[in-house]
């Protein structure tokens, strides 16, 4: 079927973290804002998912639920079809979400005072997860060359040599800078981690949202050695706009690593599964691909629209064009380098809710992350508000 991504849907009054004025006031100090911050989409999920959930709801009993073979087959078939990755059923471990999974991984493989490497500017729950589990953050900052972000391999290797470093959290594709790491880059990282006994935890939640002609490489699909030294975190949540259903599949080929991780899940009583999530996942992977293909085209058009808008109206705001995700990283440093003043400009003068760059690390100061997975009219209004605030 043909999907209309231009349809504007009122999300207020639905307990939306992104849209509810009460939460906007809490996070930004303003209620009357246009929100392009939280990483969910303002599009209806694919119709087959909606139909499946409605049909399941009609049953009227929502008891304890289990994952059967058809659930695992849906995950396996999707990974093979979209990523040419052969996944074994036994390697799939359910966890409610990837952020909880990262916390459980740190609990399983780190002791108090151990260290975890991240690459800022990066998804800020990584840092919180490390600190909350009494471990230390080791930053391998990405290098911005004026066009895109790159890995500082020399710095990474030096930091990986520290025997207290137990885990490296790889964001692939990267949030917020939108990089799709090349196979060559991943091989360099993987070899350094193998040599220094550092476990790679690859957050690949955006791996279906690849834009243009870019190609995503699943870290564990490079070779068997990497597969046995990694945990791959995936989910249908970003792909099909169902994050509120809280389902993810953590894929771990190594039985030794998998058993350690599952032991922590048992200690935290993580086992049951929401029946709606099970139904939604199967519908998404078995019937949602046509919607995804249409979505990717719309996202690409939104990105082109934003790029042209900036060129024509805000030449001093630079778009670091993402190779994946529906999140764009905007450089406002020619407008305002001071992050507090930039936040005042965007949040209070323009009244647009974006993710502030310094949430992702100190090297994000002067940047903002914008979620462009919304109807184009909403994106245009947000850009108009920012443009007006800058020019006043």
Textual characterization of the structure:
- Keywords: Aminotransferase, Transferase.
- It comes from Vallitalea maricola.
- This is Pyridoxal phosphate-dependent aminotransferase.
- This protein has 392 residues and is an alpha/beta fold.
- Helix content is 41%, strand content 14%.
- It has 14 helices and 15 strands.
- The protein has helices spanning 21-28, 47-58, 69-83, 98-109, 125-132, 153-160, 183-195, 224-227, 237-240, 255-267, 275-287, 289-313, 339-349, 376-391, and strands at 34-35, 92-95, 115-118, 136-139, 143-144, 149-150, 165-171, 199-203, 230-234, 248-251, 318-320, 327-331, 352-353, 355-356, 367-371.
- It has a 7-stranded mixed sheet, with helices on both faces. A 4-stranded antiparallel sheet has the order 11-12-15-14, covered by helices on one side.
- The longest helix is centred in the C-terminal third of the chain and has 25 residues, at 289-313.
- The protein starts with 20 loop residues before the first helix and ends with a helix.
- The model has no long low-confidence stretch (mean pLDDT 97).
């Amino acid at each position: 079927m043909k999907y209309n991504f231009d349809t504007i849907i009122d999300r207020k009054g639905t307990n939306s973290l992104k849209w509810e004025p009460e939460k906007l006031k809490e996070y930004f100090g303003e209620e009357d804002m246009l929100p392009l911050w939280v990483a969910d989409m303002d599009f209806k999920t694919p119709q087959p998912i909606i139909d499946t959930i409605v049909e399941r709801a009609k049953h009227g009993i929502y008891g304890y639920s289990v994952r059967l073979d058809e659930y695992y087959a849906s995950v396996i078939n999707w990974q093979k079809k979209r990523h040419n990755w052969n996944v074994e059923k036994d390697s799939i471990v359910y966890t409610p979400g990837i952020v909880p999974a990262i916390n459980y991984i740190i609990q399983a493989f780190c002791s108090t005072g151990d260290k975890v490497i991240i690459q800022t500017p990066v998804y800020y729950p990584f840092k919180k997860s490390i600190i909350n589990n009494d471990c230390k953050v080791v930053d391998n900052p990405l290098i911005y060359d004026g066009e895109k972000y790159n890995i500082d391999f020399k710095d990474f290797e030096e930091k990986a040599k520290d025997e207290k470093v137990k885990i490296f959290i790889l964001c692939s594709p990267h949030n917020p800078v939108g990089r799709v790491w090349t196979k060559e880059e991943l091989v360099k990282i993987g070899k350094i981690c193998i040599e220094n006994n550092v476990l790679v935890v690859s957050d690949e939640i955006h791996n279906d949202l690849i834009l243009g002609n870019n190609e995503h490489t699943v870290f564990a699909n490079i070779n068997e050695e990497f597969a046995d030294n990694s945990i791959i975190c995936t989910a249908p949540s970003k792909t099909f706009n169902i994050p509120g259903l809280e389902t993810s599949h953590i894929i771990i080929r190594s039985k030794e690593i998998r058993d350690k991780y599952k032991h922590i899940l048992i200690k935290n009583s993580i086992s049951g599964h929401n029946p709606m999530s099970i139904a939604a996942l199967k519908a998404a992977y078995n019937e949602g691909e046509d919607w995804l293909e249409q979505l990717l085209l719309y996202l690409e058009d939104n990105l082109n629209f934003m790029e042209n808008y900036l060129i024509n109206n805000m030449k001093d705001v630079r778009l670091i064009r993402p190779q994946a995700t529906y999140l764009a990283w905007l450089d406002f440093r020619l407008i305002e380098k001071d992050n507090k003043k930039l936040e005042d400009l965007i949040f209070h003068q323009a009244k647009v809710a974006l993710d502030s760059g310094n949430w992702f690390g100190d090297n994000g100061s002067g940047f903002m992350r914008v979620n462009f997975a919304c109807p184009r009219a909403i994106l245009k209004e947000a850009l108009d508000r920012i443009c007006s605030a800058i020019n006043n």
